[in-house]
Each structure stands twice: as C-alpha cells, then as structure tokens.
Amino acid sequence: MNYLRQGRQFATSWLRWTQNDSNDTATGETKDGILQEHDNKPPVASADITKKTQILSESQRLREDHETSKFEQGDDIDANAFENIFKKDDGTGVEDETSSDTIDVKKICSESSAHVLNTRLDTNKTKHLDSKENSYSCIPEKLNLIKASSSEITLRWDAPPADYNISHYEIRYRECTEKTTRWIFLETGDNKTNAKIIDLKAGAEFEVKVRAVDTNGEEGPYHPPIKVATIESLANKVRLSATLHSEGCPSVYLLPMKHEEMFDNKKAKARKYVLGKANVSLVPEKTILVIGASKSGKSLTIEGMVNYILGVSWNEDYRFSLAQELSSEISTNTDDKTEWITCIRVNHSLGSQIDYNINIIEIPGFGNLEIDKQIVYRIQEYFTTEGEQGIACLNAVCLVIPASTALSTEQKYIFDAIFSIFDKKVAENMLILATFGDGDEPQVTEALNIAHVPYKKCLQVNNVAWFGSNKSKKSPNEIYWDMSCESLKTFFLEIEKAESISLLLTQVVLKNREKIEAMIRGLLPQIEEGTNKLNTLQEEVLILERHKSDVEEYKEFKYKVTETHQRKVDLETGKYVTNCLQCNRTCHYPCAIPDDDDKENCAAMCEGNCMVCPGKCHWQKHKNNSYRFEVFPIEVEKTYEDIKQKYHAAKKNAKQQKVVIEEAKQAFSLLKHDVSKTIQKVAGFITELNTIAFKPDHLGVADYIDIVLENEKKEKKPGWENRTKIYSKMRDEAQLMSNVQAKNFLPWDEPSC
Length: 753
Known about the structure:
The protein folds into 4 domains: 3-126, no CATH class; 135-229, Sandwich (Immunoglobulin-like); 234-502, Rossmann fold (3-Layer(aba) Sandwich); 508-571 and 626-740. It has an 8-stranded mixed β-sheet. Helix content is 40%, strand content 19%. It is of the alpha+beta class. The N and C termini lie far apart (125 Å). The model is unreliable at 1-6, 10-133, 327-337 and 649-654 (pLDDT under 50).
C-alpha cells in the first residue's frame, strides 16, 4: 500500500469536504472509502493510514501538535511543511515516483488555508480551549531553570494568566543528542508552578517543556521548549586527584583529604581533615556529631555520606573511601585510630549534593566501661576548647545504631552513656541512622521509644551497598543503595533546616557531671574509712566490756581490729592526679589537668576550695604528683594503752571505760558530719543536672557492671583479676550515685554502743 498516495487522497477529500461544508451541501459519491459527502462528515482515513498513524513515534506526534498550534495561532500555512507531514508518514520521506495520482498540494493549501484554519477551530469547539485567544492564555509562561546539580534540575514557571482551573502540569523532557531520544513524561501532581526532575545524566543538555491540564482533564498547549543542562559530576572531578586503592567492581579510591595538623587538639585527641578548597562565597556551614556504640557501622556510614555528597551514582565503576587515609596518619604506640575524635570537613563545590559546608565529627564507639570515661573527658575538652581546635555549636546529633537493636541491659547502658553527655536541647535535635536496614520497620524504634530517646527521624541505611558489587541490575545491593541514598537525601535536608545549637549548656552538663564523679570518688574512701571506724568502735566497745575488770585495775591486754590505712600507688604514663599535700589525700583521679598552676579548674574544686579532702583545703595546696593515695583495710594488733592514746582518754579520777567510748563516738560523728555535707553537695549538683541534662543519672549503671563482672570471672582472660577490682570500684560508685539521690541518705546508722 502506498501511504503517500492515500495521504494525498485524504488531504484532497478533506479540503473538498470543508468547502462543501460551508454551503451545507454535499456532492459526489463515496470513492475509495475516503469521502462520504451525503453524511456531511469529515473523511476518514483508510485502515492502513489509521494503522500507520497509530504507530507514529512520540516525537512525530508532538511535531504534528506543533504544526497544529501554528494553525490555531493564525500563522500562514507552510505548504512544504504540510506536504512533509505526509512524506514522513511514509516512513521514508521520499515521494513514490510510480504514483500517477499526483496533486499540487501547495496550490490546494494556498487556496484553502483560511478555510482549513476555520475548520480546525470549529472541530475543536468541544474542547475547553476553543479559540485562538484561549489557546494563548492557557500556556504557562516564563519557564526557566532555577537550580541544577549533577543529577537534578529544578524548574519554575508562571501559571497561565487566564481564568483557567488548573489541576496539574505535565512536563516532557529528553536529552539533547545527535540521535533524537524519546520524550519522558512527568506530572506535577498539583498546581504548583515548580518541579524537580531527578536521576539525570551528569554534564548533559536536556530539552524541557510544560503544559497545563485543567480539572476536566483537558490539556493546553506546551510552553515552547527550553534547553537546560546538568553540571559535570563532582565525583568525576574528585577522582582525578584521588589515589586508586583497589581495583574491582567497583574500584575503591582514597579521597585526597588534607590533614590540618595546626587544628589538632592533642589534649582531647581530636584531629581535623578537609576535603575540597575553602569557599570564597558565603556558603552556610553545618556541624553534626556522629556517635554510637563500637561496631555499629559509624565509619562506613560516614563514607556513605561522603560518597553521596560527591554525587557518586550506583552505575559508577568507583567508590571513595577515607578509612585507609585516616589510619595511615596514626603513627604509633598502641593508639587505635578509633580512639580519636575525627572531624571531616567537606567544603561545598559545584556539583555537590548539598548546598553547604559540613563538618562531620566522629566520636569513638561506646561500650567499654574504662574507655567510655576517657571518651567523655575528651569530648568535654573538645567542646570547651575555643577556635578551630574545638567546637562551639552543633546542628544535629546523629546516632548510628543497628536496625535490629533491642533494649538489653548493655544497650540501655550505651544509651545512658551517650545521652548523659548532652543537655536537653541538643538531645532533642537527634537523627537516627539505622544501619543494616532492609526497608522494613526497624526494631530499634521500639527500643528507642522504651528508653524514652527523643528523635526527629529514624532513617535506614545499609552499608553493604556502598562498596558492594554493582555488576548485576536490580540486585539487593542496588536496592539497598537506592534506599540508603533516599535516606541520606532526607537526612541532609533535615540538617539544612536545623538551626545551630550552642554547646554552652552541654559544657555545663559535662562540667557538673565531672564534679559529681570527682566527689563520688572522694566519698568512697571516706565512707570506707567511716565504716571501718564504726566497726572498730563497736569492736573496741565489746573488748572494753569484756576486759572491764582489767581496765579498772589498769592491766594491759591485747586485741585485733581492722583499720583503714593509705599507701602510695605510682601513676601510669600519661595519667594525672590532684593530691592534697595538707591532708595527704587524693582528691581527683584521673584528672585532666597536669599543671599545678591550673588546679583551680580541677573538677574537685568549687569556688577556690576542694570539695573532697577532709580539710576542704585551698586549691593551691593541691599538686599533680607521680603517685596517688589509695585507701586499704588492714588487721592490726592493739593494746588498751593504744585505745587511750587514740581517744585521748587518759584522765585521772575518771571512769576510763566510759570516757574512751564517748571519745570514740565523737570521732566517728565528726567523720559522719563531713561525709553528710559532701553528700548534700552531690545531691545539689544532681538536682541542677536534672534541670538541664538529658540523662542526669548516667552513673546508675550498676546492673550492667554486674554483668561485666560476671563475664570477667567466667572467662578469666589475662588481667581479669585487676579488671575485676576496677569494675568493682566502679560498681560501688554507681551504687553510691544511686543512693545519694535518695532523700536524707546516710551510709551508716548511729552507733548502737
């Protein structure tokens, strides 16, 4: 079938019908199934023409719409263009020279152009857009590009000026290439005059147009297409200066980060790395703290963040890593890289997926009783240091935690250890990244709710995707990649909206908590001493009763009691202490202040005096020695003469036994009074913490310490006996902290003697 020949016949019949229609008459007979003038209806194309029309490509149909709009807008009809329509329908664009049915299409168009225009408009009277004026008025105006990234473009336009009830807008876009690509269709879903097109090719040019759709479902004409472009991928630029670490699918490159050694905080064991050049323009800056338990996936999550920021896509044959870069900077000794607080600053660059500079601060993992306390000390030092070596404000805290986490005793301890650092305001600005997520509702949300942990959003990531194989399409890795990227997109949008929160209150929380811990540690030996004194007093009273006749006759006798003594213990390398030289007591250990001239800032000091030592001595009486004092019990042999000397009761003409006992009670009461005052101070600090701290009772973790002690005794790994002593002391501190919060708490009753 010759489509060109049938097309010409169809055009001739159409023109003949439109002329007759104006006179409301019909002449002639049906010929070739094209014209049926007696019904006064427009000609219908043959089945082959209809079939051919149905299989036109989307681009051809839109080109016809464009030609139609010319008719509707009153433009002169281009006969060549009209004729070309039928040539293109042929699929070849070449006229069939064997056809004998040739007509002058140009002449037909010239004679009947006005009539064709009127006919086309009349045919469209059933549509909402029924006139040249209405056609113009329902076209969106001023379509333009607002923002472009390596994978997205944001468009905006003005709504049609006419009284046109718009339901939504339709957008069509396609990449501009030498070979024409198909239009991709997109609906806005509402009548807002902006839209974002995502998942675009980086560094490519696109053609975009938009039209309005009214509430009846009728489409208006398209805004003339405009050309827009995505910017070149930032990841591709960064890779040029990155170092290949391992080849594979994908290959792994080490990021070209710069270690800013001048900003290292040796005291807090904090360091800083920078990726990208500093911005000349004013770009917002955000700071987040990434915190969690050991082995929760913090480092991999941060690597995923950086890959997302740089615009790495799933199909790329490379990924970026920073772990090797960081570990190579750690020299030495027995330091583990995970012990350091690490700040990674990513400066904004053209093509970045976020519109701000970001400081990502990774805190070492919690979960080790001994190391956790050191981490808190370093965080406090880092938060209170001014300038680039410290940090003054945060935009959010990111808690990284496995999605399957349940609220065990250990997990409750970790929650308490983490949240005890912050004031209530910072803790409320919490975002959860649930690692090892699979897209289902994570179990960890239940644990967070039971533990009363406030958070804005809980988002899932799966770190397997970042460096997993991307050979297969629609593999689990790709599904996890898409899920993780969508979560990080939401995450960074939340960071963009988050206001900066001062850490001044958090600094107060940390300082008060340190004072409380110092006082609790100082109380323990005093309580132990008081307990031993009370026991000794009761023993001596019984002995005096037993030797009443010997006392009256001034006979010598011996007995054994348990007393509290002190000894000096050498400090480990790198540890500091605050000793009172006047009382010969250790008032704070371990202490973060090595300089004697700065002991005024020791946690044991308050308003210039020590809160721990018995004499409440001035801070200048305290020094950092190479040893600390340790209290220990010992059994000693005593005589009656020792009792008299001990209580200064050797008085003439007095009932010796009664005097000795009363003197012993008085000595115990003095100690009890000192301990009671210290307990009241501790309770006061705890009350203050309750008003500002998120978790004021972090030391109340006796249950968890009991589990650790039990495990140590079962496993008996090398050094278990020493660790057991340390944990037992920590358990006593935790229990004392819990007891101190009870009203009118005292560690002993009045002597019964």
